[in-house]
Specification:
single chain; 288 residues; alpha/beta; TIM Barrel; eight-stranded parallel sheet; 12 helices; 14% strand; binds zinc ion; Class_II_FBP_aldolase
Length: 288
């Protein structure tokens, strides 16, 4: 199949109470590893890259590799641009073949977030590309922030309703207490807020900061309406640790295949786990 828009699979996921795993990949091996895991699990898949990775590899190289992966399977595979603040990069990635983009204007005041998101949607909708936007601030939510300040960083359910209505955004990432990176303690997820937001808007919701959330908390968030879970940091660690282990054992190793193969296997193992946790295993044939 060609690369799929993520809209249909995420709506299916929201409707049926599971989430699609979205993996941030930085190398061809990481991309292949998560695709292998999706195929083995019969799961829909979202490949995603940050703007930094687009600059590092090139949107055209990434899209070409993702298209080859999609062409080899009947599973729906989407290619998503994660946390982009730059309209021009969004357009460049859409032209390269990305089927989904996140415009992150959450650092701007609400009205500007609406305007910037709507501008991207006017371009993306014309070519069937999914648009994700963020409300509240996912990063920087720390446990030691006082309640009122923490509350101000999290997405307001009423604002979510007006944001979706005014922008027409396809998928929404509301800040609900997760953070990027690896948590020092347990994440402080506001499940009540997820429930209120999910009860107010029917678009699929996106769980950012998926690395290291305890499995029972992921299942709870997914059951409440989180239809996409982003996994970035844990995947990078699995990849890098496997390479480090090879060099600890054999410092003189100079054949890239000898360290890339174990790294790829480590990424695949983790991806299999995350796909199972999201509940999207076995859903590959349903969502299209
Ligand atoms: Zn994120």
């Amino acid at each position: 199949m060609p690369l799929s828009s993520t809209t249909a699979v995420l709506r299916h996921a929201r409707k049926h109470g599971y989430a699609v795993a979205a993996f941030n990949v930085h190398t061809l091996e990481m991309l292949q590893a998560v695709v292998d895991a999706a195929i083995e699990s019969d799961a829909p898949l979202i490949l995603q890259t940050t703007v930094g990775t687009v600059q590092h590899l090139g949107a055209d190289y990434i899209a070409a590799a993702a298209e080859v992966a999609a062409s080899r399977t009947r599973l729906p595979i989407g290619l998503h641009l994660d946390h982009c603040t730059d309209y021009n990069v969004v357009v460049r990635c859409i032209r390269a073949g990305y089927t989904s983009v996140m415009i992150d204007a959450s650092m701007h005041p609400y009205e500007e977030n609406v305007e910037r998101t709507a501008r991207v949607i006017s371009v993306a909708a014309a070519v069937g590309v999914n648009v994700e936007a963020e409300l509240g601030k996912v990063g920087g939510v720390e446990d030691d922030i006082v309640v009122d300040a923490r509350d101000a960083l999290l997405a307001d359910p009423e604002e979510c309703v007006s944001f979706v209505a005014r922008t027409g955004v396809d998928t929404l990432a509301p800040a609900i207490g997760t953070a990027h990176g690896i948590y020092k303690g347990d994440p402080n997820i506001d499940f009540d807020r997820i429930a209120r937001i999910a009860g107010s808007v029917d678009v699929p919701l996106v769980l950012h900061g998926g690395s290291g959330i305890p499995p029972d908390q992921v299942r709870r968030a997914v059951a409440l309406g989180m239809a996409k879970m982003n996994i970035a940091t844990e995947l990078r660690i699995a990849f890098s640790d496997a390479i480090k282990r090879v060099f600890e054992e054999r410092p003189g190793e100079n054949d890239p295949r000898k360290y890339m193969v174990p790294a790829k296997e480590a990424v695949k193992r983790l991806a299999l786990e995350k796909i199972a946790l999201c509940g999207c295993a076995g859903r590959g044939g349903e969502a299209v």
